[in-house]
Amino acid sequence: MIQITTTILLSTIGGLFSACLALIVYIYNKQSDRISKIEDTQVKCPVNKIYTLIEKDQTDIDWIKRELKKKN
């Protein structure tokens, strides 16, 4: 019969825990790299800047319309 000692059990659990931790760190690093690449692309792309400007203008126009409706 196989005997499982506490040392073997703790080393197995420790190995699994360290593997899981390494996987989490790897995924986090890949995601943060991916997000920074997307942010760099957004900063460099003029189309996104134009879209943002149009969106701000629409928000301002909506606010002006609401204020005018309140006064009427």
Describe this structure in words.
The protein has 72 residues and is mainly alpha-helical. The protein has one domain. The chain is 90% helix and 0% strand. The chain is elongated, with a radius of gyration of 27 Å. The N and C termini lie far apart (89 Å).
What structural category arises from helix and sheet content? mainly alpha
The number of helices is: 2
Q: Work out the helicity level.
A: over 70%
How large is the share of residues in beta strands?
under 5%
Radius of gyration: 27 Å
Strand segment tally = 0
Reading the helices and strands in chain order gives: HH
Count of domains = 1
Shape: elongated
Kindly report the average pLDDT value: 83
Distance between the termini: 89 Å
Describe the structure using short key phrases.
mainly alpha, single chain, 72 residues, elongated
Secondary structure layout plus pairing:
Blueprint: H1 6-44, H2 46-71
Describe what is shown at a glance:
With 72 residues, the chain is mostly helical.
